[in-house]
Design goal:
The chain has about 180 residues and is α+β, with helices and mostly antiparallel strands. The protein is built from 2 helices and 10 strands.
Length: about 180
């Protein structure tokens, strides 16, 4: 019996050592896919009320009826169903601009919003911008669209195919425009 243990123990150790070798390329790929799946998250929220702070100051408040956030190693995207309401605040915490839309996409890694359907931007001084699509790049404070827009700066209103400017509508360019101007 002691002879069979002497043969059995080294045989088991040899098999264990052979089984602990490196993983094949296929096995490594399978492990990576399994780990990638565990890094993919999706969350859902109803009655969304999101606040964005920059340097301990409230920069914007967003409200929507429903949102889904998808996050993985390649993307971080929140899709918000509306109505969507956004308030943008100035340095003193006062409301600077109000934005309404039917829906929105937020990409926090790029500090970017895309707004869809019945988009209306209301800024100080009664300025209003209307379009069906608007892209807002927060870091550069750039608002743009190539779609048809109506821009109202009382008492004037201008229709154009494209808009490029800042979020408080103080600096802007309208493309292919025409409209009504009141001259006193």
């Amino acid at each position: 019996m002691s002879t069979s243990f002497r043969i059995l123990i080294p045989s088991m150790l040899l098999l264990a050592a052979l089984g602990c070798g490196e993983l094949s390329e296929y096995e490594n790929q399978q492990v990576q896919e399994a780990l990638s799946d565990s890094l993919f998250t999706t969350t859902q929220s109803w009655d969304v009320d999101m606040e964005v702070l920059e340097q301990v100051r409230l920069k914007l408040r967003l409200q929507g009826s429903y949102a889904t956030t998808t996050k993985n190693e390649h993307q971080n995207v929140t899709r918000i169903s509306g109505p969507v309401y956004i308030e943008i605040y100035d340095e003193e915490g006062q409301t600077e601009t109000i934005v309404d839309a039917d829906s929105a996409i937020h990409r926090p890694d790029n500090m970017e919003f895309e707004l869809f359907g019945n988009v209306e931007v209301q800024a100080k001084g009664g300025k209003i911008l209307r379009s069906d699509y608007l892209k807002w790049q927060r870091e550069q404070d750039r608002v743009s669209t190539t779609d048809f827009v109506i821009f109202i700066s009382p008492p004037d209103s201008i229709a154009a195919n494209g808009f490029y400017g800042n979020s408080d509508l103080t600096n802007y360019t309208l493309n292919e425009g025409g409209g009504r101007t009141v001259i006193d």
